[in-house]
Backbone:
């Protein structure tokens, strides 16, 4: 899989990606996935390779989107994917466009740069945009040195796993919401 050198992109490590997919293995087949801050697309591509029906990749970096497209082409996954070159906040908040058209999503991967305090706001946007399926799952990757995002008014953390400097927090709609 192609990658980008020298850019401010931090691909999910093989160890973390494998652990995530071991946890969500029974949810992937036939699902619709949204990969925010996609970077080189490793999480979304892994989902497609495990049977996801479609993945929308969102990244604002032009070079990263080019690498995602090349990787999808090399693997023959073009039909099962959409690449959106846009800011994640705008892509969700727009209320129309490729992100809204493929909703609802069964899985949403959120992997912003660790220095960016974006996860809390993104969880709220995902809830307000109504793009998550009722039993959908949002996975937020963040630094283990940071406090996990609280969630939102109707989304609560249901699981959290730590892998060295990386933590993955899992969110679903709360049963009270």
Residues:
């Amino acid at each position: 899989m192609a990658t980008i050198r020298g850019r401010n992109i931090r691909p999910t490590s093989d160890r973390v990606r494998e652990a995530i997919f071991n946890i969500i293995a029974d949810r992937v087949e036939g699902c619709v996935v949204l990969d925010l801050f996609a970077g080189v697309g490793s999480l979304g591509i892994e989902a497609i390779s495990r049977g996801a029906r479609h993945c929308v990749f969102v990244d604002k970096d032009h070079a990263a989107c080019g690498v995602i497209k090349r990787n999808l082409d090399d693997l023959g996954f073009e039909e099962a994917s959409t690449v959106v070159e846009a800011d994640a906040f705008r892509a969700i908040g727009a209320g129309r466009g490729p992100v809204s058209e493929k909703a609802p999503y069964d899985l949403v991967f959120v992997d912003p740069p660790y220095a960016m305090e974006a996860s809390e706001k993104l969880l709220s946007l995902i809830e307000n945009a109504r793009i998550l399926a009722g039993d959908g799952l949002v996975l937020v990757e963040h630094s283990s040195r940071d406090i996990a995002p609280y969630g939102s008014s109707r989304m609560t953390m249901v699981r959290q796993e730590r892998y060295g400097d990386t933590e993955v927090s899992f969110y679903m709609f709360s049963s009270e919401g």
User: Anything to note?
Assistant: The first strand starts at residue 32 and ends at 36. The mean pLDDT is 88. The two ends are 40 Å apart (CA to CA).
